[in-house]
Amino acid sequence: MSTELRIDYRKYLFPLSQCITTSLLIFVAMQVVLLGMIAPYFYTTFIASPTQDTASSSYLLGFFIATTLCWFCSFFMLPSLLGTSMFNLNFSDIGVKKPVLNKSNVQLICCSAILLMVLGYVITRQPSVRAFYSSSLSHFNLATFIFVNLVLLPINYFAEEFFFRGILFLTLWRLVGWHSYWIADILFTWGHQFKPIPEIYLSAFAGMILNYMTYKTESIYPAIISHGSLGILINVLVYFNV
């Protein structure tokens, strides 16, 4: 990565070694992920469970709005406050800036996005995935479905990628180099533990791709677009029973 992204954390954490700093970051990240699991746990337990009665459309819309607020606070507000207070970071340090778009990076983004969307199509063939998402989406009319996917979900994906790719991966990269890939990916996959098994496997694979995409472009925006496109595609395929 370019030298402009490198930060000397010793200026901000005088008594802490690199190992302790990394351990502290991972511990804090685990607490953030646990906080972000509240909404998926609630959805799996009370909405997507086959033993539960069907919820109303208004109730489900309220749940999605509450989830958006929860994820925005968990993955954006809290991490950004910790990043600025502990490490004196600005948004450009954690990839909130225009991506580096040379020819190879554009090819990487396009190929990665296509691959993830193909895999997204594949997992929607699995009954567990369709049942998980149709338990809520099937009760929405078209206007509500569009609102959820084009207004609420982009906020979720921005917050999620801000944390996992920006705060977590890029910061770990400066501390431990290539180890940042598997550490960030484990936490990202762990955050999907309440999703269907096929999606958990896809999350583990997608996390590595999104990490590499962020590393190459020095920005979280390609990851946001790719992740968001994948999630919306899955919803569309389930909603229209494609």
Q: Could you explain the architecture of this structure?
A:
With 242 residues, this protein is mainly α. It has one domain. The protein has 9 helices and no strands. The termini are far apart. About 3% of the residues have low confidence.
Secondary-structure element pattern, one letter each: HHHHHHHHH
The value of Rg in angstroms is 18 Å
Query: By helix and strand content, what is the structural category?
Result: mainly alpha
Strand content: under 5%
User: Helical element count?
Assistant: 9
Number of self-contained structural domains: 1
Beginning-to-end CA distance, first to last residue: 41 Å
Mean pLDDT figure: 87
Unreliable runs: 9-15
Sheet with the most strands, sense and barrel status: none
Q: Count the strands?
A: 0
- What does the overall shape look like? globular
Please identify the oligomeric state. single chain
Q: Helical content, roughly?
A: over 70%
What are its keywords?
242 residues, mainly alpha, 9 helices, 74% helix, globular
Summarize the structure.
Helices cover 74% and strands 0% of the residues.
Describe the SSE topology.
Blueprint: H1 18-36, H2 38-46, H3 57-87, H4 103-123, H5 127-137, H6 142-176, H7 179-190, H8 197-217, H9 221-239
